Amino acid sequence: MEETYCTKTIILNRTDFREYDSRTTVYSLDKGKLELVARGVKKIKSKLAAHLEPFNLAEIMVVRGRKFDYIGAAASRKCFPNIKGDLEKLAAAGKAVNVFNKLVKAEEADKGTFSLLEEFLGSLDSRELKIGHDLWAGFFTLKLMAQLGYKPELYNCVACNKKITSGENLFDLSRGGLMGGECLNKKGNGALVISDNGVKLLRAIIDNNFTKLKNFKISVKLEEEVKTIISSFCQYHI
């Protein structure tokens, strides 16, 4: 008899596999990231297809097979319709999940990581979100990196360990954090200028949940600065 188990998942993506099947990547609450086969999901009358759309929160039954595990049943719990009905939100969700796939290893479950992804999708789906969707994906990227052990040093200089003060500071990609004005001559590869407001915003992103962050008012200039720093930091470490 085939072994089965049920688990709560977030659907990350689907790719074609064979004529009517697809490979479906999910992040499971208690099993971590899994790659499963969804049989017959490309058929017009498939009952699974609607439940396995990317970014859905779904309960699935997994059946263990000899060559691969496959999805025997699925029931969506949240579909986040405002994301799927908005191209900008959809692009932001796709960007966030792409980073997630690169950073999160297979079959390593973590409840905090699951909650972070679920909260991100829920906040992005909200009609009350005022912050640019691309920046919101950047918020998720930084929070995810901190969750997974790539948290940047934002309070003490990475060169001398002195407390960071306002004024001339850098974000040093190679050292993974802020460098104070007294140590600028020690900068490594990829040091970026960062403003005092940039420092405050990076700290706030890591220290606050998405509910608080969505009420922040951010200027266009600060948005571009922080997006560049987060993107560069992520690219440097992955």
Read across the widest sheet, the strand sequence of neighbours is 3-2-1-4-5
Shape: elongated
Largest sheet: 5 strands, antiparallel
List the secondary-structure elements in sequence, H or E: EEEEEHHHHEEEHHH
Average pLDDT for all residues: 94
Span from first to last CA? 41 Å
What is the number of E strands? Answer: 8
Question: Could you name the CATH topology of the largest domain?
Answer: de novo design (two linked rop proteins)
How large is the share of residues in beta strands?
15-25%
Question: In a nutshell, what does this entry contain?
Answer:
This protein has 238 residues and is of the alpha+beta class. The protein has helices at residues 81-84, 87-103, 111-125, 133-147, 196-207, 210-213, 220-237, and strands spanning 4-17, 21-28, 32-38, 57-63, 70-78, 169-172, 177-179, 191-194.
Structure in words:
Helix content is 36%, strand content 24%. By secondary structure, the protein is α+β, with helices and mostly antiparallel strands. The chain folds into 2 domains: 4-78, OB fold (Dihydrolipoamide Acetyltransferase, E2P); 87-237, de novo design (two linked rop proteins), CATH 1.20.1440.120. The strands form 2 sheets. The chain has a 5-stranded antiparallel β-sheet with strand order 3-2-1-4-5, covered by helices on one side. Strands 7-6-8 form a 3-stranded antiparallel β-sheet.
Task: Draw up the topology in text.
Elements: E1 4-17, E2 21-28, E3 32-38, E4 57-63, E5 70-78, H1 81-84, H2 87-103, H3 111-125, H4 133-147, E6 169-172, E7 177-179, E8 191-194, H5 196-207, H6 210-213, H7 220-237
Antiparallel strand pairs: 1-2, 1-4, 2-3, 4-5, 6-7, 6-8
Helix pairs in contact: 2-4, 3-4, 4-7
